[in-house]
Amino acid sequence: MHRKSHQCGLLLNHLGFLLGFVILIGDPNVAIASIHDYTKGVFVPLSNSFFFHGGSEGHYASSDRHSFIRFESVTFKRTKESTALYHDKQQKTGLVEAIIVESQDRDKIGGAYFNSDQICCTAELHVKKYCKVGEVIINPRSDNSEWPKRIQTFFDGKNEETSMVNQTVYINRTGMYYVYFMFCDPDLDSHGMTTISGRTVWQNQQGFFQYIYSTCLEFLYALVQVRY
Ligand SMILES: *[C@@H]1O[C@H](CO)[C@@H](O)[C@H](O)[C@H]1NC(C)=O
Ligand SMILES: *[C@@H]1O[C@H](CO)[C@@H](O)[C@H](O)[C@H]1NC(C)=O
Fold first, then answer.
1. Residue with CA at minimum distance from ligand 2 atom 12
2. CB within 8 A of 144, min separation 6: which ones?
3. Ligand 2 centre from 172 Cα, in Å?
4. Is residue 8 part of a domain?
5. Are 194 and 183 in contact (CB under 8 A)?
6. Shortest CA distance to 212 belongs to which of 176, 170, 166, 181?
7. Which structural domain, as residue segments, surrounds residue 185?
8. What pLDDT, in 10s, does the model give residues 113-152?
9. End-to-end Cα distance, the chain
């Protein structure tokens, strides 16, 4: 247990996020929420992208909106230097994408489906009509073209900060879900790091089943009961 905790601690430090947990108990059904807090989280290079792991949880499908991932006050901050080339009135001067993907669909992120190890779309791949330049490559599911889900947030002008619109993504297929925050623009990194803060709230009516997948469970989950 101790050793496991240590490994989990290292893992969490590496991923740069803090976890807090709350149980919400309502009548008659039990809903459990897990909160992933990001404090100046740092993006790391991955292939030709930059990447921040926003969390993963097992979710049960819910047809009545009890299973969801909510983005709250998620804010990206870039350095002043990285805005040097832009004008005040210029729109869309930087893009960060939140990607929500179910475990089975993880190979739909990036160019694996056309045998490329690129994650971000390049001009060459765009010409071949695979994707849009500057975006993460996503190969949509054949049964639901909305998934894996992509939520785009742009910087405008010389602004050093931009925030995602607070929003809730409902889960109606059971599975292990991942949230990745990603950007493709090297300018967001080469002039000092772009960081993320804010949080995601993951709620699940019947509780999570992460323990099936995660050896870190005992360490990760300190559950607090709250009545509402
Ligand atoms: C987003 O949600 C957080 C937490 O509920 C809240 O404090 C914040 O004011 C919201 N932001 C906006 C722009 O509504
Ligand atoms: C649930 O998923 C189906 C496809 O799998 C989709 O058509 C439908 O809009 C989704 N419902 C909700 C409430 O998200």
1. 172
2. none
3. 6
4. no
5. yes
6. 176
7. 32-205
8. 888 889 999 999 898 887 999 999 999 999 999 999 999 9
9. 33
CATH assignment of the domain containing 146: 2.60.120
d(CA 137, CA 132): 8
The first and second tokens of residue 203, run together, are 């709620």
Helix (H, G, I), strand (E, B) or coil at 130: coil
For residue 9, being part of any structural domain is answered with no
Q: What is the pTM of this model?
A: 0.78
Mutate to test the pocket of ligand 1, among 38, 69, 71, 72 (most ligand atoms within 8 A of CB): 72
pLDDT, tens only, 178-206? 999 999 999 898 888 899 999 999 988 76
Is 26 among the domain residues?
no
Residue having the nearest C-alpha atom to atom 2 of ligand 1: 72
Q: Examine residue 128 and state whether it is found in any structural domain, yes or no.
A: yes
Length of the chain: 228
* Residues 58, 208 contacting (CB under 8 angstroms): yes
The DSSP output letter for 8 is H
Nearest to 170 by CA among 85, 76, 67, 91: 67
User: Which regions of 60-160 does DSSP assign to beta strands (E)?
Assistant: 68-77, 94-102, 149-155
List the one residue out of 200, 226, 184, 219 whose CA is nearest residue 59: 200
Cα 154 versus chain centre, distance: 15
- Count of structural domains within the chain: 1
